[in-house]
């Protein structure tokens, strides 16, 4: 390909993907299937890798999510909420493990915390002295939307944590999602009333949570699983995580569960990378029977010390990987059904 053709292609992909991001993250109205979006993003990343000087400043490969809607007050995340890199097959997965070991300069086996990749939207819950004081969407990773009143309507999210000795500030991150049964019931009801159906449970969860009227959110039967922590420390901003928190990711999840927050029952601690493929296959096989929608697994290096050594790239940690499932029913909804947010 000539340099001009590469420039034009990078230009076109950047603009197209930025438009899709706006439709998906800001308007909750995707116009192309995720598999198509993922294909275009991979093409852009490959072109950028081969031609780093041609990468554009507004490249979607460097950005998390979309801007927070102005209709909500905005929340600046004390610790950014990032995305995840993804792999789609065993070779890519093994290349990731190799990169991890090279960076850690070790040939030892690596323990992983293995989780289903829930198909909803990321939120951050802030507890002060054990009380839920604020909830925010991920937004663009730095600034999210204040959705505290809507989060309060989700029955499984505690307004007060259990346990007497708690850090002054504890931020818990996780996924709000719509269980399949609630999604089916909601769409059946919409069809009966002659209203538009939702595209998928992710879209329904995002549309239900980003409502200005929390009564609508309350009627939507959303659920939540915690999957990580944000800031842990004092109200004056001192980071006290080292004093409070266990030193592995899996133990941190069970710590959060013991405080009363729901943790996905399918999460497993794997003693080495060799078990990850078995976990992936098991979850893929169980996918249809799970009560919630997933689009892959997330595998996280379990040691927090290793996580800290590995660090982050622009929009994702180097210690976690989304191992995604092959695309399913690529074009279902978008061709056949009108949907709403
Ligand atoms: P992502 O969904 O691939 O991965 C990051 C997100 O995974 C996190 O923010 C969190 O919300 C979620 N997650 C679920 N389970 C998790 C767990 N156990 N641990 C940690 N995180 C977990 O990344 P993204 O940046 O939110 O979205 C990118 C994807 O969204 C694309 O790959 C594409 O499939 C889809 N997308 C589609 C369109 C479209 O137009 N169809 C547009 C933009 C994005």
Keywords:
single chain; alpha+beta; five-stranded mixed beta sheet; 12 helices; disordered C terminus; binds nicotinamide-adenine-dinucleotide
Helical residue percent?
25-40%
What structural class is derived from the secondary structure elements? alpha+beta
Q: What is the global morphology?
A: globular
First and last CA, distance? 41 Å
- H and E order: HHEEHEEEEHEHHHEHHEHEHEH
Q: Which regions contain 5 or more consecutive residues with pLDDT less than 50?
A: 331-341
Radius of gyration: 20 Å
| Tally of strands | 11
What value does the average pLDDT take? 93
The largest beta-sheet arranges its strands as 2-11-10-3-9
State the helix count. 12
Bin the strand percentage. Answer: 15-25%
In this entry the ligands are: nicotinamide-adenine-dinucleotide
Main sheet properties: 5 strands, mixed
């Amino acid at each position: 390909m000539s340099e001009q053709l590469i420039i034009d292609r990078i230009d076109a992909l950047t603009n197209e993907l930025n438009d899709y991001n706006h439709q998906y993250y800001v308007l909750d109205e995707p116009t192309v299937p995720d598999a198509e979006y993922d294909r275009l993003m991979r093409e852009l990343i490959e072109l950028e890798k081969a031609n780093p000087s041609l990468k554009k400043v507004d490249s979607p490969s460097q950005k998390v999510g979309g801007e927070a809607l102005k209709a909500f007050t905005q929340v600046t995340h004390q610790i950014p909420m990032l995305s995840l890199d993804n792999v789609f097959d065993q070779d890519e997965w093994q290349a990731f493990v190799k990169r991890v070991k090279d960076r850690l300069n070790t040939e030892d086996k690596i323990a992983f915390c293995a989780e289903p990749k829930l198909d909803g939207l990321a939120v951050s819950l802030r507890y002060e002295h054990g009380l839920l004081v604020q909830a925010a969407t991920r937004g663009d990773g730095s600034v999210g939307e204040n959705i505290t009143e809507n989060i309060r309507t989700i029955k499984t999210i505690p307004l007060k944590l259990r346990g007497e000795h708690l850090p002054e500030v504890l931020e818990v991150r996780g996924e709000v999602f719509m269980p399949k049964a609630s999604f089916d019931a909601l769409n059946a009801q919409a069809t009966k009333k002659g209203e538009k159906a939702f595209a998928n449970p992710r879209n329904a969860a995002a549309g239900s949570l980003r409502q200005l009227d929390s009564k609508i959110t309350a009627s939507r039967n959303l659920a939540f699983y915690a999957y990580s922590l944000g800031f842990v420390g004092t109200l004056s901003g001192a980071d006290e995580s080292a004093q409070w928190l266990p030193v592995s990711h899996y133990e941190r999840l069970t710590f959060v569960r013991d405080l009363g927050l729901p943790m996905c029952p399918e999460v497993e601690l794997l003693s080495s990378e060799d078990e990850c493929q078995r976990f992936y296959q098991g979850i893929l096989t169980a996918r249809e029977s799970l009560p919630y929608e997933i689009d892959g697994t997330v595998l996280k290096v379990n040691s927090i010390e290793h996580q800290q050594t590995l660090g982050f790239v622009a929009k994702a940690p180097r210690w976690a990987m989304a191992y995604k499932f092959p695309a399913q029913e690529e074009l279902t909804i978008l061709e056949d059904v009108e949907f709403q947010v």
